[in-house]
User: Which sequence fits this backbone?
């Protein structure tokens, strides 16, 4: 059985990742693929327990170090229980956030040493890196305004302040520049239909 494909969607709050992850899953199913649509933090029962403590509560509830360890603990469970088995049977896996969120949130925006994150990543993700990462780019204020309209649930990271979210946007852009073989920047400041058209073009070009 051919290994499936692994696509991750990354970017700041309210950029449209979850909206487009659902659309991409539908479109790939329509052309006949088995699709596993999942998310981080979370995606497996154990990782969803960790999600609860990561996305709720006060913005400063965890230090960047503790946050990174919790994220990679959740990611390890998610990979072993859901992502790796799905890829092994040939499914296409779409994850709404993955390891670049650790690099951007705890690293670029949170100030954690990138070498620490890369050490965790080698041990936990290893060879199972995404085949394609779509990085949604939107001014931080616009994303936060969209996210605020969504309500107060799971809003811990939204509470980290404007400067944090500006560093986050720059952090994601830097990841895209550093890994052009894997990452494509998506201009998220457009209608949902226009964003999806761009994504579908990129997915066909890169993974056809
Ligand atoms: N292209 C878009 N233009 C305007 N609003 C959007 C767009 N895409 C999503 N939204 C809306 O913005 C909010 C955040 O979208 P969502 O997909 O949940 O973002 P994310 O998962 O990146 O935080 C939702 O209310 C959604 O309906
Ligand atoms: Mg979302």
Assistant:
């Amino acid at each position: 059985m051919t290994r499936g494909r692994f696509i991750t969607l990354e970017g700041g709050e309210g950029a449209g990742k979850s909206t487009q992850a659902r659309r991409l899953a539908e479109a790939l199913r329509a052309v006949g693929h088995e699709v596993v649509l999942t998310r981080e933090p979370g995606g497996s029962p154990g990782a969803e327990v960790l999600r609860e403590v990561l996305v709720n509560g006060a913005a400063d509830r965890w230090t960047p170090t503790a946050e990174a360890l919790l994220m990679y603990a959740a990611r390890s469970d998610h990979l072993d229980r859901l992502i790796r088995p799905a890829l092994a049977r040939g499914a296409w896996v779409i994850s709404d956030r993955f390891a670049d969120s650790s690099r951007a949130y705890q690293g670029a925006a949170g100030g954690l040493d990138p070498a620490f994150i890369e050490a965790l990543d080698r041990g936990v993700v290893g060879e199972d890196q995404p085949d394609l990462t779509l990085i949604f780019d939107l001014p931080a204020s616009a994303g936060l305004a969209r996210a605020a309209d969504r309500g107060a649930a799971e809003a811990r990271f939204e509470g980290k302040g404007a400067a944090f979210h500006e560093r986050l946007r720059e952090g994601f852009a830097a990841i895209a520049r550093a890994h052009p073989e894997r990452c494509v920047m998506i201009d998220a400041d457009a209608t949902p239909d226009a964003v999806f058209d761009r994504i579908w073009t990129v997915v066909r070009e890169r993974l056809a």
